[in-house]
Design brief:
By secondary structure, the protein is of the alpha/beta class. The chain is built from eleven helices and six strands.
């Protein structure tokens, strides 16, 4: 485990540290952000999306997978592509793909403690559903720290990184972007919050889509481990 003070000092100024601790609203993505990528929940969801498309369109699984990946790249989520191209009602799809085994997600006492000590209100902002978020947060043991969950239904099924759901989130919870932080594992999903004036934190993973769109000044802070980063943040020591 990295030394706490060193973890804070690497690439972060004292002014940055103070600004982060003065944050009014923390907005956290869910999947591969609040739990580590190694839990691999998305592998289950990914498989179920292929199964659903195969059944829904009456095609074989391999063909369904091609469509699934194309829609993800072109529309931000596979769901959005299915709705756009096939006028699909979303509820059955969302219920089916999130009917998964959550046991790979383990309780994270370090993250629980860091969130408890982190000033500011905390909101989950996910392209998944409220039920999926609640199940995941319960497994992690951190659900009590969040004031709200803003999901794909609340965003009228328009996914990140489209601008509309960010605007809807800000309006729904009266967020001042200049006093907010957005934490995400997909760098491209940080472009809009940075444009709006939020501070951004990229939770980098080895997934191909994590680094897509990482070039440019919209990524302000980078970590490979959110628990360690938050723990270092709240326990930073600048001799103040």
């Amino acid at each position: 485990m990295p030394d706490t003070k060193q973890a804070m000092l690497d690439g972060m100024s004292e002014a940055d540290w103070k600004a982060l601790l003065a944050t009014e609203t923390w907005v956290f993505d869910l999947d591969n952000t609040l739990y580590p990528q190694r839990c691999n929940l998305f592998a289950q969801i990914d498989r179920k999306m292929g199964d659903f498309i195969s059944r829904f369109l009456g095609i074989d699984y391999d063909e369904a997978r091609v469509i699934q990946k194309r829609y993800f790249k072109e529309h931000g989520t596979t769901l959005n592509g299915l709705m756009h191209h096939h006028d699909m009602a979303p509820k059955e799809f969302l219920d089916f793909v999130h009917d998964i085994d959550y046991s790979p997600v383990l309780q994270d006492d370090r993250l629980d403690k860091a969130l408890e000590e982190l000033p500011g209100r905390k909101i989950v902002f996910t392209n998944g559903t409220v039920d999926h978020a609640k199940a995941t947060l319960a497994q992690l043991g951190i659900g009590g720290h969040f004031d709200a969950i803003f999901d794909i239904v609340a965003s009228n099924y328009i996914p990140k990184p489209n601008p509309e759901p960010y605007a809807a989130l800000i309006k729904a919870y009266d967020i001042d972007p200049s006093k907010a932080v957005m934490v995400e594992d997909m760098a491209k999903n940080l472009k809009e919050p940075a444009r709006l004036g939020m501070t951004t934190v990229w939770v980098r993973t080895s997934e191909e889509w994590s680094s897509m769109g990482s070039e440019g000044g919209h990524v302000h802070h980078i970590t490979d481990d959110l628990s360690d980063w938050l723990h270092a943040l709240v326990h930073g020591d600048y001799g103040l």
